[in-house]
Amino acid sequence: MNNLGKTKIFKGVQVSPGIAIGRVKIFLPGRFDAPKRHILNSEVEAEKERFKDAVSQVEAGLKALLNDIPQELKEHAAIFTAHLMMLRDNMIYDETLRIIETQKINAEWALSKVLDKIKNAFCKIKDDFIRERFSDVEGVIKRVYIGLHGIGKDDEKPLSTPSIIVANDLSPSDTIQFNPNIILGFVTEKGSRTSHTAIVARSLGIPAIVGVKGILKEVTDGDTIIVDGLCGEVLTTEDKVIIESYKEKQRDFRQYSSDIINTSHLPAITSDGIKVTIKANIEMVEETPTVLSYGAEGIGLLRTEFLYLSKKGLPEEEELFDTYIKIVKGVYPNPVTIRTLDIGGDKFVSSMPFCEEMNPALGLRAIRLCLKEPGLFKTQLRAILRASAYGNVRILFPLISGKTEIVKAKQAIDEVKEELLTQGMPFDEAIKIGIMIEVPTAVMMADALAKEVDFFSIGTNDLIQYSLAIDRVNERVAHLYEPLHPAIIRMLKQVIKAGHKADIEVGVCGEMAGEPIYIPVLIGLEVDELSMNAIMVPRIKKMIRGVSQSLCKGLVDDILQETTAISIRKRLIEFLRDNCPDEFSPEKGLYCELSTRVLM
Ligand code: PEP
Ligand code: MG
Q1: CA angle, 283 as apex, 281 and 284 as ends, to 5°?
Q2: Which of 187, 396, 554, 577 lies in the 20 to 30 Å Cα band around 175?
């Protein structure tokens, strides 16, 4: 942190470009760390009363909330009614009082013991429907905990004034519950460039900075802050001159972004005539119109987790199908690559695999979870296949580590096709099937895997995480996350070569594909398709039009000789300065973004 008079500057990782200036709203979501205190016999009654008061307070709050709930949120009212009922349930109410009394501990600690006990019991239950109820129990206990502290009462109300959200961390489900129209920016103490919160912020076009250590201690609700999503800085200031200078920077960046959008319809053809297909990554049906308006040629990655994250319980086939056909029809005749469910890891779904894992990134995630839960998997496959009758659909399997998983996943598709045929339901019988390359073993086996599928899509976010052993959501190792590690460049080359040898297309859909600095490398590696946040499409297309593939190939030949990321970066900076001066223009507000990232 830097101190300039009363203005303080905090450094973080810029994850979504743009400048936001506005008032802080602190968000205190999620888990709680219960303070643990033994109490005296003489304190037991008072502690029990404190707990009972908190429950009554939560009860009153929930009743008021139910009365005031806005029309558009009425469908969620059932959750609050369920919470009201659970508040007085023996399992929570009586048990907490009993633990306070018998174990002589404070109410928060007793409450956390109750939560652990319930969690263990729920973990053993096979029935999905009953297991899903755990998230309700957790929600109720969290409310009481907040009630005990008298904090965060406002967090239950939908935000009504434009604000910059400042939080310790935001899960994907926290992020999507905000109304994007009144969120000016996101700042979190945790997280990294490829965490899903960052991805969501980017897709909403909201400036965001993560990994800003200590910010929560420095700001309170209503403070003015500036989020510089180009330089990765957060400023706390009331200084009018500084605020004015950032307003100017904000205007410049908006102007630059709107100028570039005017060219978004032009194809991405390099100066020596090589066409690269540019598609968009989306997560929500609401983003569909942005795909075409930003000039993307379809959807290269439809992350399908959000229907599972945004509500209690698992979505039904019909709901999935309705959503998919809206998207498929929305971009028709352009193609949509629908990735099957990739929950687990940092995409945690309270209604499914809530049993905590020591290493969720290495746990029951993505295709592994789907193969273990055939009911869940086939419901989604049915919806995808049925939607394929309405447009141009491809299926993509995430986190494939070897051929056996592909064989099993394809078998599930065959079984679902059989069912649909018997039921007379239409689908695209020749639907293309691809896999994400994001585990090092898939890289090593790319030649064999290429024979099994119709296309590869390289998920660099996870490939880098798993190759460099860098947790993509851990801000403490974010500085070690290195797309330009020589091993990563070699891996990309190996996969693209193997794919082309088998005559299949190879795309990149990780965040690397949407970052201008990496474009010459990816073009030089002869990638066929890049898929990115829609907002980045116009800029990346413009950049591709400005470079020649043969020069980029020369760059790649050079960097393949290098043995450290630092020397690769140096070489890349030279290339960018010589060949992409536009992208390094300080006037356009981009210099800072590019130079800090490249030079760090
Ligand atoms: C990736 O890992 O690069 C990717 C695109 O998938 P996700 O970010 O959803 O894990
Ligand atoms: Mg991934």
Answers
A1: 130
A2: 396
